[in-house]
């Protein structure tokens, strides 16, 4: 019998399908990314009502620089506009934002916007929103290992976990990918070790509160064993509280 678990504390989302959403409507791909921002706003607003404390989203991967220059430029413009428009609402809603990823090759304007958004929301505690921008799971692991080596710190599972870009929060309980693709695409490779995976056929701009609830319902039906047997999990869950 599967243990009925609570809503995940931390969910992560690969927001896939913006370009295909636009192409199906004979629109430029950047139009899909704009609609994707609206989808993200819906999910950010929905999380606190569902007792989700941490939301991590894959906004721009380190491999996305290989996309057409026009699309990359459009994505940067969307990010800058979203920051200027949405930070006041994040403040009102108690959302703390972290931008996770390399910043070396970002423009001064974009870097300044990221820093100001993080500083403005630093004291918020209703929801932590991690935006993985110019991020890759392999980059994250390699950068953490290099930093530990430079410090002369032994590289262990514990020290590496503490040096990763998402060390400020627990690993995701649930990873959702939209767009009917079934892979992680270099997202949270270390942190996903025991995450439940859920794949949605919906393109990201069409993902809404009902789609989120469907993913949460599926998650609640699963038994998370973390290497143990089903009997061990049931025994622990049935044990009386001290």
**Class from helix and strand fractions:** alpha/beta
CATH superfamily: Decaprenyl diphosphate synthase-like
Number of domains: 1
Largest sheet: 6 strands, parallel
Q: Between the first and last Cα atoms, what is the distance in angstroms?
A: 24 Å
Number of strand elements? 6
Q: Average pLDDT across residues? A: 89
Q: Based on the structure given, which CATH architecture is correct?
A: 3-Layer(aba) Sandwich
Overall, the morphology is globular
**Uncertain residue segments:** 1-5, 235-242
Q: What percent of residues are in strands?
A: 5-15%
> What is the strand arrangement across the widest sheet?
3-4-2-1-5-6
Number of helices, counting only DSSP H or I runs of 4 residues or more:
8
CATH level-1 class: Alpha Beta
Could you state the order of secondary-structure elements as H and E? EHHEHEHEHHEEHH
């Amino acid at each position: 019998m599967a243990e009925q678990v609570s809503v995940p504390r931390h969910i992560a989302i690969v927001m896939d399908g913006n370009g295909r959403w636009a192409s199906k409507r004979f629109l430029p791909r950047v139009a899909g990314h704009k609609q994707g921002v609206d989808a993200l706003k819906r999910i950010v607003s929905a999380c606190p009502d569902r007792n989700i404390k941490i939301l991590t989203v894959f906004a721009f991967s380190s491999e996305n620089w290989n996309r057409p220059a026009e699309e990359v430029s459009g994505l940067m413009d969307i990010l800058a506009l979203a920051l200027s428009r949405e930070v006041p609402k994040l403040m009102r809603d108690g959302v703390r934002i972290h931008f996770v990823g390399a910043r070396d090759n970002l423009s001064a304007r974009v870097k300044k916007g990221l820093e100001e958004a993080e500083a403005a929301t630093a004291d918020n505690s209703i929801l932590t929103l991690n935006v993985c921008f110019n991020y890759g799971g392999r980059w994250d692991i390699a950068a953490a290992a290099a930093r530990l080596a430079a410090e002369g710190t032994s590289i262990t599972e514990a020290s590496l976990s503490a040096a990763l870009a998402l060390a400020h929060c627990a690993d995701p309980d649930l990873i959702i990918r939209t767009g009917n693709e079934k892979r992680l695409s270099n997202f949270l490779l270390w942190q996903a070790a025991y995450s439940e995976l859920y794949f949605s056929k919906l393109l990201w701009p069409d993902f809404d509160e009902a789609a989120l609830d469907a993913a949460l319902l599926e998650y609640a039906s699963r038994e998370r064993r973390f290497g143990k047997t089903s009997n061990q999990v049931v025994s622990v869950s049935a044990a009386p509280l001290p």
